[in-house]
């Protein structure tokens, strides 16, 4: 389903919603579910979402701000449904907690490797973020030894060496081939592309160096890494865990570290079950 609606950033929300609406209808039909019988559809959106007012404040995929996504969806679908919109950072964090089986009483640090790399905290099972779903973005966190210039005008920002966009940049430096997103590099990793593996390794090493001082301060009970990462048990996931653990202080070397990919988006049935709540 995701492949059907991938797009170059820039289409208006209305154009994008038309494509998404067609996908929703196809997914529900494949399950034998009529759209009119659905009482609620939940959407997660990249960017900031004012969950109180159900407004997409900002999304990197659109040339628009303060979008009433719920109204657009009901207008396009032509059915009066209850629409819930939330930020995909929060939804991804909840999914990662469930997949990792984290104890509700734990202090959990959740690292999300998306276009940017973010950090969230879960305390007593509650995801900590502001009402916009915005979280701690490491994009301009300074890393010693990083000499790459950043668009902000400084040198050494985390986002230039370790993030989804950094992995794409690493691959371009190695091959001269410009890809759209980190998922394209991951596809090449699965195919055994050595340059793709090296591009990810470079970002993994920088991520480990950046996390170490933060984990020294937070002293969490568990660390979960999710987003554009390998599946649990894969060689890439093992390499990531080893890299992070090597940078930790001795008293944190036994910190439980989980690497998980979100379940949503893996096949039509999984996506449809989330759309149906």
Weakly predicted, low-confidence segments? 264-277
Shape: globular
Strand content: 15-25%
What's the helix count?
9
- Radius of gyration equals 19 Å
Taken in chain order, the helices and strands follow as HHEEEEHEHEEEEHHHEHEH
The class by helix and strand makeup works out as: alpha/beta
Helix content percent band: 40-55%
Structure write-up:
The structure is a single chain. It is built from 9 helices and 11 strands. The chain is α/β, with parallel strands linked by helices. Strands 6, 7, 8, 9, 10 and 11 form a 6-stranded mixed beta sheet that branches. Helix 2 packs across helix 3. The C terminus is likely disordered.
Q: Can you summarize this structure?
A:
Strands 6, 7, 8, 9, 10 and 11 form a 6-stranded mixed β-sheet that branches. Strands 2-3-4 form a 3-stranded antiparallel β-sheet. With 277 residues, the chain is of the alpha/beta class. Residues 264-277 have low confidence and may be disordered.
Fold blueprint:
Layout: H1 2-5, H2 13-30, E1 40-45, E2 48-50, E3 55-58, E4 65-67, H3 69-77, E5 82-87, H4 88-100, E6 107-113, E7 117-123, E8 126-128, E9 136-137, H5 164-175, H6 182-190, H7 194-218, E10 222-227, H8 235-247, E11 257-260, H9 268-275
Parallel strand pairs: 1-5, 6-10, 10-11
Antiparallel strand pairs: 2-3, 3-4, 6-7, 7-8, 7-9
């Amino acid at each position: 389903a995701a492949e059907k609606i991938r797009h170059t950033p820039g289409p208006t929300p209305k154009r994008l919603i038309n494509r998404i609406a067609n996908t929703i209808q196809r997914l529900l039909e494949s399950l034998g579910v009529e759209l009119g019988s659905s009482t609620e559809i939940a959407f997660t959106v990249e960017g900031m979402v004012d969950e109180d007012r159900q407004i997409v404040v900002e999304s990197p995929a659109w040339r628009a701000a303060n979008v009433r996504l719920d109204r657009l969806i009901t207008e396009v679908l032509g059915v009066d449904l209850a629409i819930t919109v939330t930020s995909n950072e929060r939804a991804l964090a909840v999914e990662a907690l469930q997949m990792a089986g984290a104890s509700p009483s734990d202090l959990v640090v959740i690292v999300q490797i998306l276009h940017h790399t973010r950090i969230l905290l879960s305390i007593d099972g509650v995801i900590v973020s502001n009402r916009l779903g915005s979280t701690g973005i490491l994009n301009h966190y300074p890393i010693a030894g990083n000499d790459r210039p950043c668009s902000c005008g400084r040198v050494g920002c985390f986002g230039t060496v370790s993030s989804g966009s950094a992995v794409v940049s690493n691959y371009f430096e190695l091959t001269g081939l410009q890809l759209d997103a980190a998922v394209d590099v991951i596809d090449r990793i699965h195919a055994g592309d050595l340059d793709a593996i090296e591009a990810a390794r470079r970002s993994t090493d920088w991520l480990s160096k950046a996390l170490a001082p933060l984990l020294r301060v937070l002293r969490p009970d568990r660390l979960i890494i999710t987003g554009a990462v390998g599946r649990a048990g894969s060689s890439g996931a093992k390499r990531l865990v080893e890299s992070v653990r090597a940078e930790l202080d001795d008293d944190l070397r036994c910190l439980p570290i989980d690497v998980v990919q979100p379940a949503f988006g893996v096949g039509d049935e999984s996506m449809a079950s989330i759309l149906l709540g």
